[in-house]
Amino acid sequence: MATFDDVLEEAGAFGRCQKRIFALLSVLPLTSAGFFAGIVFQGYTPDHWCRDSAVVDMRRACGWSLEHTRSLTVPLSNTSGRLQPSKCTRFDVDWNTTTLGCDTETLNLTGVPLSACKEGWEFDYEGRRTFVTEPTNILLSQFNLVCSDSWLVDMFQSVIGVGYLVGSLTVGYFSDTYGRKVSIIMTTLLNCMAGISMAVAPSYICILILRAVVGFGAKGSFTSCYVLLTEIVGVEQRRFVGIIYQMFYSISFLIIPLLAYFITDWRWLQAAFCLPSFIFVCYYWFIPESPRWLVSQKKFSKAYEITNAMATENKRNISKNLEALAEDEGDSPSASILDLFRTPNMRKYTLILMFNWFTSEVVYQGLIMRVGITAKNLYIDFFISALLEIPAAFLIVFTIERMGRRLPFASSNFIAGLSCLITAFIPDSMHWAKTVVGSIGRLGVVMAVEMVVFVNTELFPTFVRNLGVSICSTLCDIGSIVAPFVFYRLVNVWQDLPLVVFGVISLMGGALVLLLPETKGVPLPDTIDDVE
């Protein structure tokens, strides 16, 4: 019984046409990482302390240094075991009613009452302007997302996870209804428009709303491209194409520090992330619709036209009639979420995969955000940690056909977990050691993220496979929402506490993976009975 895969083999499973489309679509992820990881530079919180206008006036009159001014304004506080100038409290003194002069050598502030910041904050920008401290056009004040309002920075990263989640739940339906090509163009255009609007948004609320829309568009365009690529190549090439496509997303992280180094204002940096994506709207004239989707929609004439054009470009011919393809849809049972939990093995696989989707995203995002608060040189440290993502794709391709799926999947979690735990207890004085070991952990979790995708597809039976991947992968998006709050709140307790949490949950994920069956060389299950 002929299938579309048979037709595709005749037309060329991975010929010149598919390689051209792959090259075009692989450029799209190069612009995606900025939306996800831009918070490291856009949301960088500079050193800050309470502002006291009277002391600021004296600084100007007496020529005091910034450090001396701070010592007169705020007390020292114990932060992560070290005495540092307080960021959120100040000496409760009205300097306008005192006889403070330029000579402060005999001034003793011991025992002076403390209070919260009353006049805002002073910031040491270090050459960067971020949304954390930027003045708004409406309130003629500042965002000042520090101290009691620091959780609003978490929201900046969390709302993009909300966009990812909504995109996961809706773009698939849109793509199945209107086609892969239309979905790619529409979500890319939406992403561009929302991203540019963010760069000129007048208030923080507008920024958060638009960032959620950016997340929706970014997730939609990324997944629609992924689906189109896997539908136009042969069965044997799908896994390779999928892994390499995701590798380009990792490569895009190398571009971010370069852009951020030269573009120090967060609004212009946001524009730089988005403007190149407008080029992809032109893809409407350069990429075809998925002929596999057209066949599923009974649009055989258009499907034949596209498949024949692919065959011609590949210097091949097709002989099979697309209208004769048997779909045998009547024998396929309808899928239900309950099918994922009804039987013992299905229930076990679903829960283990859900846990791994969730933990992989939390750890991955957490390690990226950690660079923003621990880096000695933000640009170099970010580049190094991003560079170690690149080998992940090659390691996966090299190991899965030699060692199977289960062992590399579990090992990647173990590498991530152990690296996080080791990094947490390396002394801060050994910064390069912490950076390198932490980056190895990032390599491990990237492998885990990429492997959970196709392990998920190989474990579930045909009729519930797409539903199973969709339901399990929503835990990844929930992880995106939760990760910023977990990371930034734990950092306030102990800077390396997030690493301990990441290490523990990664080790748990690896141990659970060992409970899954090996799928290398095993035919894909068609029914739940095959799974059980």
Automatic annotation (TrEMBL):
Places the protein is found: Apical cell membrane; Basolateral cell membrane; Mitochondrion membrane; Nucleus outer membrane
Transmembrane regions listed in the UniProt entry: 21-41, 155-175, 182-201, 207-229, 241-262, 268-287, 351-373, 379-400, 407-426, 432-455, 467-491, 497-516
Reactions the enzyme catalyzes: serotonin(out) = serotonin(in); L-histidyl-L-proline diketopiperazine(in) = L-histidyl-L-proline diketopiperazine(out); (R)-salsolinol(in) = (R)-salsolinol(out); (R)-noradrenaline(out) = (R)-noradrenaline(in)
Key words, A-Z: Cell membrane, Glycoprotein, Ion transport, Membrane, Mitochondrion, Nucleus, Transmembrane, Transmembrane helix, Transport
GO biological process: dopamine transport; histamine transport; monoatomic ion transport; norepinephrine transport; serotonin transport
Molecular-function annotations in GO: monoamine transmembrane transporter activity; neurotransmitter transmembrane transporter activity; quaternary ammonium group transmembrane transporter activity
Family annotation (PROSITE patterns): MFS, SUGAR_TRANSPORT_1
PANTHER family: SOLUTE CARRIER FAMILY 22 MEMBER
Designated name of the protein: Solute carrier family 22 member 3
Record organism: Tetraodon nigroviridis (Spotted green pufferfish)
Lineage of the organism: Eukaryota, Metazoa, Chordata, Craniata, Vertebrata
